[in-house]
RNA sequence: GGGCCUGUAGCUCAAUUGGUUAGAGCAGAGCGCUCAUAACGCUUUGGUUGGGGGUUCGAGUCCCUCCGGGCCUACCA
C-alpha cells in the first residue's frame, strides 16, 4: 500500500467548463484516484476552483455581482457539476481561501528571503474609463501589420504577429471600448526564475518517464532563446491575494495582488489544508502529504492537466517550491493531455459551441460521458467529439457488451433458477480457461492503469467484458439446461460472480453502474486480486436482483437532435 | 518567424523504441446462437504506413526533402 497525492488542474471560475476541460484534467485524475483507492492505496485527491484574475472580475461585473459573491456562487455551481460527474475529490477547494492567502503570502516571503524576488518598475497601459490597468490582451486596436481591426494587444489573431499594446493603431479598451488609455508606471514583484534554471533543468532531466508532451514543453521554456525568463508575480487588480500585508518585506504594493498563476498552484497545497480544516483534522494531517520532513517523503504525487498548463507546473510552481528553501513535496509525475475538439472545430465558450458539463448531465447520466471521454482521452494528440462516435461508443461498449451481458445472465438465472446464485455442477476446462484469460487480461488492465495509459486501460477493460460474452456463447447454459441443469447452474454461478467482478473492475470508469451492479448482486467483494477466488465470492444460495437496464441506447433521433442543438449559439 | 507534436484500413486508434506476414474496435459482408437491451459469438473484406529520396542485412519506426493537420511562443487562465 502506497500513499498517492493526486491533483487535477483547477478549473477557472468564470463559467461552466466544457467536456474538453473535463477530460483534460479532472476526469482522468478521478479515474486514477478511484483506481488507486480500489487497489487499497491511501489517496488524497484534490481539486479547487481558480478564482482570481481579470476574467473573474469581468465575469462578475457582467453578471452584476460583487466578485466575491460571483465566485462563491460559481464555486457552488462547479462543485455540483463535479458531484454530478462523480468526481471523487477528497476536497474541492477555492484558491480564494484563507489557507491559500496565508500560504501564498508565506511563500512569497520565503522567496524574498532567498533573494529570489525583485521589485521592478514597468510601464503598463491604464484605462481611465475602466479605472484599471489592462492586460495586453484586453487592449484592442488595428494591427499595424495586416490592418485587422480587432487585433489584441498581445497578438493579432488574424496574422498571428506578436504585438506590443503600444503597436496598435487606435487602441481601445476591450472591456469598455474607451480610447482614453495612458501608459503609466507601476511597480511589480518578479520571481527570479532564471537563477533557478539549472536546478529546474536538472530536476526535469531526472523525469525520464514523463510524457514527451510534458518534458518538451518544459525544455522549450528552459532553453529557448535567452532561456527561462523571470516572471512577474503581481498584478494591478482588486480581486486576489494582497501583496501588501502585515509582515511583508516590501512596501508600496498597496492595491496589488498576486498574479493568479502564482497563487493557483499553491492552492494545491492550501486545498489540503482546507481539507484538513473541513475534516476537523490538525495541520499535521495535511502536512504529511506535503512536507517531506513531516511524512510526505513516501508520497507519490501525480498531477493531471491540459497541455496549456504544463509550463506553470513544470517550471513556475516548482520554482516557487524549490526557491522557498522549504521541504515541499515536488510532483513525481505529470500527466498532460491534448485537446478535445468538437465536431470539426474547437469547443467555444464564447460561441456556445459544444457540450458543457451542465448540458451533458441534462442529456445522460455521468457514466455515459465518463466512458466515452476516458476511452478516447486525447493522450497522444488532439481528439474529436462527434455525436456519431459518442452514440456508437456508448451503445456498443456499454449497452451491448456490458449491459446486455448483465441482462442475459441475470434474466436467464431468474427464469431457470430464481433470483439466487444456483447450486450444483462444477467448473471444467472451459471455466479454467476463462479464469486464465481473465487473469491475464486483468494484469494488462492493471498495468495500463498503473502507467495512466487511459485509452489502453479502457480497451483492456472492454476486452474483459467481451470475455464474458465469449464464454457464455461457448458454454451455452440455455442448451446445457435442457440435458444437464447442474452444468447450466455452474455456468450461471460463474457468470453471476463475473458480474460482481465487473462491478469492481469497472468502477473507476463508470462508478454509478458499478454501484448498481453491486446493489443488484448484493456484493462488496473489492478488487479481484485472485480471480479464481473472486469468481467464487458469491456462494450458492446468495440472493440477487435483476438490475434495471444498466445502459440505454442513444437513438439516431436523439443523436441528430443533439448535434443540431449544440452546433453553436448556446442559450 | 522559431520550437514541438502529428499523418497507419471507410472512421477512431495500436505496433514491446530498427526485427517474421503492420494489428484492434467501429462500420461493411457471410455464418452461427436464441439466454439477452434485434443483443451475443465465429469467420471475413479492407493498408504502396501522406509523396519522394537516403541510411541499413532489415524502416511505420532513423536521416533529408516536399505536402497536409495541430499545439506552444511567457500580460487569458
Automatic annotation (TrEMBL):
Q: Which UniProt keywords apply?
A: Aminoacyl-tRNA synthetase, ATP-binding, Cytoplasm, Ligase, Metal-binding, Nucleotide-binding, Protein biosynthesis, Zinc
The source's superkingdom equals Bacteria
Where does this polypeptide localize?
Cytoplasm
The cofactor(s) it depends on are: Zn(2+)
Q: Which GO terms describe its molecular function?
A: ATP binding; metal ion binding; methionine-tRNA ligase activity
Where in the numbering of this chain does the Methionyl/Leucyl tRNA synthetase domain appear? Answer: 4-409
What InterPro entries does the database record attribute to this sequence?
Anticodon_Met, Met-tRNA_ligase_1, Met-tRNA_synth, Methionyl/Leucyl_tRNA_Synth, MetRS_core, MetRS_Zn, Rossmann-like_a/b/a_fold, tRNAsynth_Ia_anticodon-bd
Cofactor binding mode, per the note?
Binds 1 zinc ion per subunit.
State its Enzyme Commission number(s): 6.1.1.10
One GO BP annotation of this record: methionyl-tRNA aminoacylation
**Claim: Nucleotidyltransferase is one of the keywords in the record:** no
Which annotated residues bind Zn(2+)? 143, 146, 156, 159
Motif 'HIGH' region positions after renumbering to this chain: 11-21
- One CC-aspect GO term: cytosol
Which reaction is recorded as catalysed by this protein?
tRNA(Met) + L-methionine + ATP = L-methionyl-tRNA(Met) + AMP + diphosphate
Binding residues for ATP: 349
- Pfam families of this UniProt entry? Anticodon_3 (PF19303), tRNA-synt_1g (PF09334)
Query: What HAMAP family does the annotation carry?
Result: Met_tRNA_synth_type1
Subunit structure, as described in the record: Monomer.
Q: In UniProt terms, what function does this protein have?
A: Is required not only for elongation of protein synthesis but also for the initiation of all mRNA translation through initiator tRNA(fMet) aminoacylation.
Q: Which family does it belong to?
A: Belongs to the class-I aminoacyl-tRNA synthetase family. MetG type 1 subfamily.
Q: Which PANTHER family match?
A: METHIONINE--TRNA LIGASE (PTHR45765), METHIONINE--TRNA LIGASE, CYTOPLASMIC (PTHR45765:SF1)
Q: Which NCBIfam families did the record assign?
A: metG
- UniProt protein name: Methionine--tRNA ligase
Amino acid at each position: 500500500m502506497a500513499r498517492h497525492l493526486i491533483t487535477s488542474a483547477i478549473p477557472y471560475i468564470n463559467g461552466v467548463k466544457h467536456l474538453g476541460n473535463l477530460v483534460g484534467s479532472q476526469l482522468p485524475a478521478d479515474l486514477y484516484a478511484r483506481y488507486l483507492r480500489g487497489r487499497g492505496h491511501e489517496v488524497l485527491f484534490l481539486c479547487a476552483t481558480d478564482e482570481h484574475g481579470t476574467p473573474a472580475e469581468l465575469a462578475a461585473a457582467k453578471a452584476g455581482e460583487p466578485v466575491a459573491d460571483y465566485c462563491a456562487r460559481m464555486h457552488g455551481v462547479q462543485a455540483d457539476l463535479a458531484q454530478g460527474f462523480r468526481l471523487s475529490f477528497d476536497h474541492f477547494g477555492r484558491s480564494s481561501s484563507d489557507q491559500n492567502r496565508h500560504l501564498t503570502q508565506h511563500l512569497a516571503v520565503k522567496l524574498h528571503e532567498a533573494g529570489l524576488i525583485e521589485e521592478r518598475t514597468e510601464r503598463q497601459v491604464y484605462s481611465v474609463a475602466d479605472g484599471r490597468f489592462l492586460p495586453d490582451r484586453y487592449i484592442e486596436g488595428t494591427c499595424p501589420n495586416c490592418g485587422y481591426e480587432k487585433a489584441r494587444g498581445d497578438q493579432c489573431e488574424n496574422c498571428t504577429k506578436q504585438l506590443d499594446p503600444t503597436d496598435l493603431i487606435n487602441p481601445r479598451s476591450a472591456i469598455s471600448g474607451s480610447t482614453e488609455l495612458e501608459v503609466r508606471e507601476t511597480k511589480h514583484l518578479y520571481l527570479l526564475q532564471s537563477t533557478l534554471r539549472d536546478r529546474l533543468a536538472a530536476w526535469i532531466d531526472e523525469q525520464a518517464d514523463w510524457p514527451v508532451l510534458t518534458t518538451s514543453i518544459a525544455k522549450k521554456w528552459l532553453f529557448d532563446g535567452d532561456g527561462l525568463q523571470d516572471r512577474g508575480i503581481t498584478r494591478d487588480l482588486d480581486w486576489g491575494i494582497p501583496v501588501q500585508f502585515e509582515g511583508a518585506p516590501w512596501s508600496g504594493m498597496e492595491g496589488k495582488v498576486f498574479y493568479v498563476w502564482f497563487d493557483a498552484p499553491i492552492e494545491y497545497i492550501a486545498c489540503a489544508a482546507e481539507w484538513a480544516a473541513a475534516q476537523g483534522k490538525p495541520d499535521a494531517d495535511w502536512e504529511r502529504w506535503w512536507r517531506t520532513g513531516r511524512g510526505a517523503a513516501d508520497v507519490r504525487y501525480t498531477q493531471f492537466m491540459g497541455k496549456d498548463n504544463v509550463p506553470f507546473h513544470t517550471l513556475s510552481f516548482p520554482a516557487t517550491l524549490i526557491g522557498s528553501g522549504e521541504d515541499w513535496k515536488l510532483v513525481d509525475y505529470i500527466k498532460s493531455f491534448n485537446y478535445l475538439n468538437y465536431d470539426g472545430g474547437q469547443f467555444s465558450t464564447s460561441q456556445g459551441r459544444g457540450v458543457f458539463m451542465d448540458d451533458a448531465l441534462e442529456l445522460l447520466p455521468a457514466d455515459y460521458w465518463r466512458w466515452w471521454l476516458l476511452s478516447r482521452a486525447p493522450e497522444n494528440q488532439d481528439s474529436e467529439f462527434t455525436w456519431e462516435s459518442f452514440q456508437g461508443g456508448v451503445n456498443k461498449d456499454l449497452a451491448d457488451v456490458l449491459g446486455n451481458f448483465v441482462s442475459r445472465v441475470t434474466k436467464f438465472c431468474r427464469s431457470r433458477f430464481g433470483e439466487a446464485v444456483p447450486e450444483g455442477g462444477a467448473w471444467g476446462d472451459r471455466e479454467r480457461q476463462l479464469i486464465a484469460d481473465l487473469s491475464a487480461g486483468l494484469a494488462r488492465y492493471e498495468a495500463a492503469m498503473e502507467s495512466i495509459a487511459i485509452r489502453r486501460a479502457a480497451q483492456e477493460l472492454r476486452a474483459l467484458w467481451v470475455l464474458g460474452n465469449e464464454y457464455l456463447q461457448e458454454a451455452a447454459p440455455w442448451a446445457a439446461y435442457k440435458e444437464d441443469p447442474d452444468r447450466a447452474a455452474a455456468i450461471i454461478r460463474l457468470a453471476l460472480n463475473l458480474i460482481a467482478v465487473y462491478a469492481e473492475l469497472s468502477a473507476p470508469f463508470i462508478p454509478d453502474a458499478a454501484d448498481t451492479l453491486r446493489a443488484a448482486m448484493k456484493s462488496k467483494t473489492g478488487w479481484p486480486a485472485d480471480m479464481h477466488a473472486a469468481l467464487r465470492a458469491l456462494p450458492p444460495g446468495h440472493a440477487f436482483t435483476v438490475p434495471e437496464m444498466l445502459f440505454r441506447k442513444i437513438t439516431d433521433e436523439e443523436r441528430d437532435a443533439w448535434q443540431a442543438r449544440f452546433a453553436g449559439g448556446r442559450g
